[in-house]
Amino acid sequence: MELTFEFWYLFPVSILIATVAMGSGIGGAVFFSPLFMLALKLDPRIAIGAALVTELFGFSSGLIAYYKARLIDFNLAKNLLIFSVPAALIGTYYSDAVHPDILKSIFAVGLVFIGSQLFNAWRKEEREKHEAIRQKEFEGNYESKLTDASGKVYRYTICNKNMGRSFAAVGGVFVGMISVGLAELQEYHLVARCKVPTPVAVATSVFTVVITVLVASAGHFYEFAKEGGEVLNQVINIVLFTIPGVVIGGQIGPKLQKVLPEDKVKAGISIIFIALGFFMLYTLII
Q: Are the C-beta atoms of 27 and 34 separated by less than 8 Å?
């Protein structure tokens, strides 16, 4: 195995991506996968596996910060993991059977779909702000209550639980096959549909994604190790710089989450997703 500094620039890039991902609750792999595919020209299977391994460390770092802040709803996470983990195993198992161009297409379409859903949710929230509908929505009518480490109380209700379970299953399959989908679908369900307070939704999503990605990335890395040679060497030389970067960014993101303008971040990320998805589809056509 030959270690090189060819990908040194991925260290600062990883810090930035992990900071944005942990601050917004969006899976870091949604940025790393297209970066590896488009900028580094990696085979989609290698790019997706490397992105999952990188995301695992970044989300694990952020998970520690959110756990200390006591923002994780473990009961909600448990109900989602029952569906996401088996689905991730299925997605990982069948990922090798899918042609790389099909994986790229699924990834691109998924980005456009998730981006459009987040953008529509943002527009709806903006309309509701002007109509003053949500001012006292959960003051007297809620099912769940969580108190964080600072003593702040969050009250909320998980709506349409069957939809949440379906999103967990679909997101798990997508994580196993294309490295993204679970965090994004959870954010759409919890924040946009159920209006769960963002800190609780993000922290719970991070916990769920860490466990699911651990299962999916283990399967991908096992395949890399079994294949060995140039593939394993390439993956290790990439994660050698991305893992330290996402560990640092994973600590910065939760702190920024408290001060970032939530509505502007959501709108910006949705536009980035849509643009990335269409660009990847364009690269498949030309």
A: no
**Cα radius of gyration (the chain):** 18
- Bridge partner list, 202: none
Domain boundaries, the chain: 10-285
pLDDT digits (tens, 9 = 90+) for 23-80: 776 777 777 877 888 788 887 777 877 888 888 888 888 888 889 889 999 999 999 9
Note the pTM of the prediction, 2 decimals. 0.75
Asked whether 49 and 21 are in contact (CB, 8 A), the reply is no
Taken in order 21, 27, 33, 36, the sign of the CA dihedral is positive
- Do 57 and 246 contact (CB within 8 A), yes or no? yes
Q: What are phi and psi of 153, to 5 degrees?
A: -100, 130
